[in-house]
Putative 5xTM membrane YitT family protein (Celeribacter persicus), 208 residues
Amino acid sequence: MAAADTATPREEDQHTLFEDAQGLLFGTIMCAFALIPLRTLGLITGQIAGFAVLVSYVTGWSFGAIFFVANLPFYWFGYKRLGKKFMLKTFASVAMVSVFAEWFPTLASFERLNPVLGAVIFGFATGAGLLAIFRHGASLGGIGIIGLYIQDATGFKAGYVQLIFDACLFVAAFFLLPLPMVLYSLLGALVVNLVIAINHRRDRYIAM
């Protein structure tokens, strides 16, 4: 999942601690809930979340544990590039998604779910969750942070780093999952990225 937009807000526009807490709670709940239809259908997504889902399918290991551990190496880069506050909020967000993603399937399930609808539900719910997380000064870690770090060091665009990672992830999925599931997964990833691209704009919104 993508890294947050790092536009600096005006002092009077900054969120309070309570506003940050409810925003991150909303965002992580939405992202974790979105994983229910995704995993029910056997689909994947991009970034570290997609990597964790794919590994969980292949190994049977817990998605939450894989997602949490896979993000650990990236916090140092997040601290260096975006600061302590961003890193702590991101760590908390990743931890909440890791816990919620394992808990929520015990509370809700889908007995019948069309894969197109499931992919779209995943995309919209994840997009809404990520918007909230980004606007409260955090991300869900991973490749987006590395992308920003590489961009600072070399000038190579962060978006290209994320695109290359996702391309490799989906190529691997073609060898591990049925072709229709990969295509539905691409639909879900497209919806997520459209929601973010259309709604997360510095010229319209202040990114906290």
In short: Residues 26 and 152 are 31 Å apart (CA to CA). Confidence is low (pLDDT under 50) at residues 2-12.
